[in-house]
Write a structure and sequence with these properties.
alpha/beta; Dihydrodipicolinate Reductase, domain 2
Length: 396
């Protein structure tokens, strides 16, 4: 059981996100003054994943191949779900039933139905829930959120968001991310989920309508997979010969309208050649604009339209000054840059703050919040199929 000074954690999953979460829990108490000490108690993995080696490498005290057993351990206080999407709902629902706090990878679930049931169950049980939308905790994104709240961009009129990768070429075999039964969707749930959450967070507004949706699968068959991945998105994937059908999208684009009147466009693609992890947004308002690109994650661009016209122009802010920028005071001196993994450490810190009854540094999505993002994703797919406007409120 967790105590007043610590929380015992069970991690479910040893893949790419299992490594990222493990690093977050392992590092957080070394850099932040945490209100609760995270105890890395037990990690679950499949039988072919060599759980003992994973546990030893990352600092987990115990390992198991039975996730139900891990959830029911009486000493566990927090369940961390980092498995493929189809397992999010059964694992989270089981943890909620056991009265445990739950943090879950994004998207919250593979289907809207599962996401709704998870949110309803958490609300009924009164347990604390969290979703790992880690890009909220990139200091530049957190600063953009703050500047909007301070009114520095004025009334938001226009939002552009994109998440482009290029790893899913025809040589990549049929991993779980290409199977709708396991993933729910492709680039849409994997990438659009992040930028929908991020723009909802930064603008402080909700997406109310979707139109112009288009979904496309360019590579419709892939070679069958042999063995597990090596911990990355496509790293270590080996072909077993033969082929199978791809049942998810490679790219999804759509237009949207926000509750404050702004219009928006979203793009997600896994085969956008030359874009390694181009995750970003542009927000244009009546007093100024903001631009962010994760490939330059320590920078935020700001245009102040209230400045003297003679000196107006885009300013590149290096978001590394601990006294003024979110989270970075726990890290390094000015201009000593942070990386991808720091977003997870920052989120681990905020989860511990909430579990201790404190406010997070910036708002952290729970299952209810993440369900709102899932409804937007579903509305976009409905728009793509029906070629019409779809109101998010009508998506049940």
């Amino acid at each position: 059981m967790s105590g007043t000074d610590h929380v015992n954690i069970a991690l479910l999953g040893q893949g790419f996100m299992g490594r990222a979460h493990s690093n977050g829990w392992k590092q957080v108490a070394s850099f932040f003054k945490v209100p609760l000490k995270p105890v890395m108690h037990t990690v679950f993995g499949q039988e072919d994943e060599n759980g003992e080696a994973f546990a030893a490498n990352w600092g987990w005290k115990n390992c198991t191949t039975n996730w139900k057993k891990a959830i029911r351990l009486p000493e566990i206080g927090l369940i961390d779900v980092a498995t493929p999407n189809y397992l999010h709902a059964p694992m989270a629902m089981d943890a909620i039933k056991a009265g445990k706090a739950v943090c879950c990878e994004k998207p919250i679930a593979g289907t809207l139905k599962d996401a709704r049931q998870m949110a309803q169950a958490a609300r009924k049980a009164g347990v604390k829930t969290f979703v790992w939308y880690n890009y909220r905790r990139v200091p530049a994104v957190a600063l953009a959120h703050r500047l909007v709240r301070q009114g520095r961009v004025g009334e938001i009129r226009h939002v552009r968001a994109l998440y482009l990768q290029d790893w899913a070429g025809p040589e990549v075999p049929l991993a779980w991310r290409f199977d709708a039964k396991l993933a729910g969707s492709g680039a849409h749930g994997d990438l659009n989920a992040h930028i929908v959450d991020m723009t909802r967070f930064v603008t402080g507004q909700e997406i109310t309508e979707i139109c112009g949706g288009i979904a496309e699968t360019f590579i419709r068959e892939r070679t069958l997979l042999s063995g597990p991945a090596a911990g990355g998105i496509a790293a270590g994937l080996k072909s077993a010969g033969g082929t199978g059908k791809v049942t998810v999208d490679d790219t999804v684009l759509f237009l949207a309208r926000f509750s404050g009147g702004a219009v928006a466009s979203y793009e997600a693609a896994r085969q956008a050649t030359g874009n390694q992890n181009r995750n970003g947004f542009e927000i244009n308002g009546t007093k100024g604009s903001l631009r962010f690109d994760f490939e330059r994650m320590n920078e935020l661009q700001f245009y102040d339209a209230t400045a003297d016209r003679a000196v107006q122009g885009w300013t590149t802010i290096m978001v590394t000054h601990g006294a003024d920028h979110p989270y970075v005071g726990a890290w390094w001196p000015d201009a000593h840059l942070i990386g991808y993994e720091h977003g997870f450490v920052n989120e681990a810190y905020d989860i511990l703050r909430v579990l201790a009854g404190q406010d997070p540094v910036v708002p952290i999505p729970d299952f209810e919040d993440a369900y709102k993002t899932q409804r937007v994703l579903e509305a976009a797919l409905l728009s793509a199929r029906s070629k019409r406007w779809v109101k998010v409120a009508d998506v049940k």
